[in-house]
Design a protein that fits this description.
8% strand, mainly alpha, 3 helices, two-stranded antiparallel ribbon, 2 strands, flat
Length: 79
């Protein structure tokens, strides 16, 4: 059975590698913001293990807020 190609992930990876090589760290800010928003919608996050909002409310929000703050900082202070 053929697996569906993850185009969004592949394109994001290329943009992140290219942006980092060019010194454009704001692309990471966009990614961090995307992660934070996506995690809020999905109700789960991942740092070194899977964290579900329903099971670990405080830890979920700390990690999610960290991604959002990192995203804003990267956009504001990135090169």
């Amino acid at each position: 059975m053929m697996k569906k190609i993850k185009w969004f992930t592949i394109i994001s990876l290329i943009i992140l590698i290219g942006g980092t090589a060019m010194g454009w760290y704001r692309v990471w800010g966009v990614l961090f913001l995307w992660w934070g928003i996506y995690e809020i919608i999905m109700g789960r996050t991942f740092l070194v293990e899977d964290i579900r909002r329903d099971d670990h409310v405080i830890l979920f929000w700390l990690i999610t807020l960290m991604w959002l703050v990192f995203g804003v900082l990267a956009l504001v202070f990135g090169m």
